[in-house]
Amino acid sequence: KPAVVYDIAGKNDKSFNESVFNGATRFMNDTGIAVTELEPTNAAQVEQTLKKLAQRGYEPIVAVGFGMSNAVAAASEAYPDTKFTLIDGWVMAPNVQVVLYKEHEGSFLVGVLAAMNSKTGTVGFVGGMDIPLISRFECGYKQGVAYQDSSMKVLANMTGSTPAAFGNPSKGGELTRSQIEAGADVVYAAAGGTGIGVYQTAADMGVLAIGVDDNQNYMQPGTMLTSMFKLVGDAAYDSYEAAMNGTWDPAMRVLGLAENGVGWALDEYNRDMISAEMEARVNEVRASIISGDIVVHDYTTDNSCPI
Amino acid sequence: MDQSNIAIELTDVDKHFGAVHANDKVNLSVKTGTIHGIVGENGAGKSTLMSILYGFYQSDSGQIKVFNKKFRATSSRQSIEAGIGMVHQHFMLVDNFTVLENVILGSEGGALISESLDKARIELTRLAKEYGLEVELDVPVESLSVGMQQRVEILKGLYKGAKILILDEPTGVLTPQESDELFRIFEALKKQGVTIILITHKLREIMNITDYVSVMRAGKMVAHRQTSETNPEELAELMIGRKVLFNIKKSKAKSGKPLLIAKNLEIHNEQGMKRVSEVSFEARSGEILGIAGVTGNGQGTLLKALAGILPLSKGSIKILGETISPEITLNPAQLRNLGVAHVPEDRQKMGMIADFSASETALLGYHNDKEINQGIWLKRSSVKANCQSIMEAFDVRPTNPDLKSSSFSGGNQQKLILAREFERDPEVLIIGQPTRGVDIGAIEFIRKRIIEMRDAGKAIILISVELEEIMSLSDRIIVMCDGEITGTVDASDADEATLGMMMANALISQEKSNEAQL
Amino acid sequence: MTRDRRLSWINGLLLPLFNVLTAFLATAVVFILIDVNPIEATKILIYGAFGYEEGIGYTLYYTTNFIFTGLAVAVAFHAGLFNIGGEGQAYVGGLGTALVALYIDPTLSAWLIIPLGISGGLLFGAMWAIIPAYLQAYRGSHIVITTIMFNFLASALMVYLLVHVLREVGQMSPQSKDFPDSAWIPFVHDVFAGMGYKIAESPLNLSFIIALLFSALVWFFLWHTRWGFAIRATGKSNDAAVYSGINPKKIIVVTMCISGALAGLVGINELMGVQHRLLLDFNYGYGFGGIAVALMGRNHPIGIIIAALLFGILYQGGMDLAFEMQSVSRHIIVVMQGLVILFCGGLEYLYRPILIRFLAPIEASE
Amino acid sequence: MNDLLLNLILTLDASFRVCTPLIFASMAGLFAERSGVVDIGLEGKLLMSAFIAASAASVFGSPWIGLLFAIFASCIFAMIHGLASITFKGNQIVSGVAINILASGLTMILTLAWFKSGGITPTLQGDERFLSITLPGVDIIDHIPILGVIYRELISGHNILVYLAFATVPLVWWVVYRTRFGLRLRAVGENPKAVDTAGLSVEGLRYKALLIGGILCGIGGAYIAIAHNAQFTKEMTAGQGFIALAALIFGKWHPYKVLAACFLFGFLDALAVRLQGVVLPVIGEIPVQLIEATPYILTVILLAGFIGKAIPPKASAQPYIKEL
Ligand SMILES: Nc1ncnc2c1ncn2[C@@H]1O[C@H](COP(=O)(O)OP(=O)(O)OP(=O)(O)O)[C@@H](O)[C@H]1O
Ligand SMILES: Nc1ncnc2c1ncn2[C@@H]1O[C@H](COP(=O)(O)OP(=O)(O)OP(=O)(O)O)[C@@H](O)[C@H]1O
Ligand SMILES: [Mg+2]
Ligand SMILES: [Mg+2]
Hints:
heterotetramer; B: alpha/beta; Rossmann fold; six-stranded mixed beta sheet; globular; D: two-stranded antiparallel sheet; 13 helices; 4 strands; 2% strand; binds adenosine-5'-triphosphate; binds magnesium ion
């Protein structure tokens, strides 16, 4: 009896809740097993929902988003025999499988790609809510850009400081506009729903944009350079599958380029925007990150960015 | 009488307001081209009846004929079109509109106001000439004196082509001079064949200018008279259903030491406008000091300052040993503790709180008293008991402390307020308009009580727009105008004419100052 | 029964009842529109709210918050003030509570820490109300607008603090570190366990008792002290207040402080009671809900408790609804809330004419 | 220097875009409050009409149809407010709050019911939305130094609704101060009894005012969803209705002053966007939150004193009750 609990942003956030949703749907289609989905409204309800699911014998229960850490901690303590999978969050418990991503690595890659595609020597970054998680994207991206071309300028903005900042396309659009007007010609958005406005404006003003979390290349074909995907959908899928096959284990999973948990999207939508040389370069960088020749700094380790 | 010249005919008009039966099967017929008076106690139903005629309220039943045509107004529009104009007890003007704008409102003609304004300007200047209703047309009405505002109301009616003009207590706020002016206008209108219905409490006016008079009591129409064939005493009796004596006899004042000495007061009102300057007087124990004057000439402001509501800008008040000055101020609470009682001019707005029970209204200003407070606890039981007793003392009906203040009639509300202020045995009493809008029966009662307080050796300062009241109560009278004292007379040798003159010649200077302001 | 009594019955009881029913009817229509069987839904909702111990616990836990904000709005109402800043005052009040809980010496006894935490909430809540109050009293600027502004300001301030000041390094979500156990208000299920009864776990904690306590306090304060009298007098008539020697400006400031303080108590239930840490948007929706609660409760503590309970039911039952019925979005609760506020607040007099016509006709008085 | 000028122009340009919905909303509020009805439901009306506009536009593939539906939806909400505050004499602020909450709930439920997605409508392609129009003669004037830039960046290149917004304000002024309706509107907001005794319908006037407000809000909402953006996303109005309300008070209920207020707030917003992340000499980097809060802080400060007392129409927020 698998279940999934989305965070406050809801499952249709066109961003990572949605890709979990896709993962769950995929599992349903493949196995025919129904996955119970829930979208609680506030902190108290998250915990309540998790406990209720556990109490009714649902498992594994996938919890989406950093916001759920406390709730999962409480629920897993109350129901020690229930399997929980927490994506993006952090809990220390024997029955909780924590899935984290090295967004900085993926961002590094798209940073490189952005640098290669910029003619003006300036690229932009639009973050959603001003929290370390997003700074991690930003920092990785900056490192990538600098790695490719240290003379590059990166304009970075956060949309806001409340969760609403993940769903404010107007502001996103304005931020993008200001960055473009200030010279940016490639803009990377790590802003959930806000990204929609970013890609829209980029398209309107004919500059390139980079999607995030899900593969968002389809959203503005022609101006979407690529997307820094983060396969949270797979995390959910795997968790369910493992539970089904009895191979589920609570070990923490930190997924980076190596594990192909993050990466850059190349599909029919952006195929002909990516030259062979770009592709080669990015893959080369990817390789050396995996091999450890390049170490990408993770903002959240010390809440600071070398660049 | 023959039907041809009947302007208005009401048959069995009936109206309820919630539980209040405001009009009870009222019949009335008014002859074209006459001045028809309507008298009655407060709450008798006069305003309601007229408002129904004017289409402001709708009657529950009964029928109305105007110029012999059956007529039922669902809004004032029909009444206006039928040729009825009304000057309400409380003016219906938009304060921040100019006179002109107020006049055209509702009958603008075109969809754009510019030409309607021009049209109105011409028409009004004509009317003004014809009836001597001169008003400045382009000033906001809030800057006009009450008298002027009333003219605007009359003009509104005439401009809309009124053949029947209803005036609800028009003279309540006017000086004798202004009233006479108004009556002159009535005559002019009458000559033009305009029918006038005049609601008033002042029998003098009825006797002087009406042709017919109808009397209402408790929602019923109790009598119709030809004015020439009746007299004030009869009317008064019809109104309240018993005899009343008009001027209460009072003994000579035994005035003692001054309890309140005001020196060169200068006071600004809430809006920061200077309303009182260079005013000095003293109030002695055992005498009533009357302050006469047209409303809006500073008495109101003076009253508030004496009661501690407004601060002084200059001068000083010595009161019961304390001294108030621009520097040292005492708030109303502190003054009450000293033994100063204050009956405010406006009972509805200041004196009471409509939604509060009588006992809570009776608590206003005294809620900090020792005897009703125990620590932080306000003892409602003693509050009620206290209210009960003062209600009995002043025969406030119904004698029920739990009743909402608003469910008392105006006069009873007034009595309740007086009771509250008198019963705590103060040394100095500051009283404003004690009987405004109160019926004769209540007036008599209230005035007696004021005299009693005087004879009990209190110092009383009395402000009233009713010259007759001032003269019958006061021992000394000062007349105020435009914020200054324009005369001081001993009650014994005061008469309406002289006082009127003192108020009036001031009127001229007031006009001046108005011009100065513009 | 006299007509006045009938009227007071109509206004005090029947009207609110009819209004709530209408709100639910309207909700039923919405359900049908998104083809969900309203009867089913209602069953689930009611069961979810009362059907089992845990559900009741949650219902009362939500109720607690609404009592606090409802009281806050009501007190302001009595002074003729419209405080729609409850949202922000609750938020900042929570900060006060949290600061005490976080920085006080945890070894102190809970008997000391918890009262201090409560005072912290009261103080900070009041603080957040005092500026709009001052502006209203001495600058004549619309309290409705200033309080709205302060809601936005509160959220900006809190986020800044949570992101840059109170969050511990490495912690992803903007939230403070946990409160020490000595700063936890006991859960009701723990209390019962202590007494040997076993009941289901729920966030319901002793803050609920505190809420009832404050309801009683407010009642006494408004109707049985001279200050309450002064407040109500000012609310009814500014002139009469001045005439009575009351200083309306002072009253405005004081009342708003009380109002803000009450709203500030949401923090003790949410933070000291349940979350045991300061986190984002713990106040979400309670401030505005309080307006509806105060209105439905006719600004009287008893009424407020009842109305708050209704909202508790909506929240908890609605949660279960979303849980049981996949096809029902959690946002249906928001719609219900809107409808309740509309019919119990904005359209509260919808039925008055009819009710009066039939139940208290004029003849009844004569 | 020239660079600074360009930046200024671009910021102003952004201000135009940002303040457009504020203008529509505050003008709507102006009609309501001038007639004596307080309307804090502006936010809700904006949100609802934004949603409806986006839905209709994507279904029918035309922004104009989207606009019409938006206006319709907003008017329905306006009428609900009217019913509550005019006919049934309820509390106007509460009714406004209700409308706001309803809107935020309904938009979510309906997106789910209609588009199987919580709080998002399909992205509008190409001319399914209002695109920016280039005014004639840009390339001619372009050669003139500063003027050219100003014309190209500032005046030209907005979508039609932006121009409409700025055309609306003088129109509103004219209606309020020059027409019979305006006269009656101002009167009913100051002293409804006077209007009543003049034989006019107080309720009728107030309903008209709210209806006009509904239309304006509808346009404002449509702008947000299908002109400034290319689809609806949840809570996308993000408090602009409240800012508009502030602007209304700030502008003392006078069309031109209100316009100024709207533009100021729009400018602040645009400036904030550009100041973000910028490290200023002495101050250093300004926290996002502070910038975010600036318009509110400013409003409060201004309310506090610089504009003295903002005196609303006397009868505003009071239902007109004739008999008890
Ligand atoms: N606007 C109103 N709404 C409801 N009831 C009212 C209203 N005005 C007056 N009343 C009630 O009508 C009754 C008479 O009011 P009113 O003030 O006319 O009496 P009054 O004639 O002035 O009293 P008195 O004759 O003693 O001076 C009172 O019960 C009062 O509460
Ligand atoms: N709008 C109203 N709603 C309820 N009751 C009212 C209303 N207007 C008047 N009444 C009540 O109807 C009765 C008649 O009031 P009305 O104003 O006609 O008396 P009146 O003769 O004009 O008294 P006054 O001499 O004080 O003006 C009073 O009891 C009054 O309180
Ligand atoms: Mg009366
Ligand atoms: Mg009258």
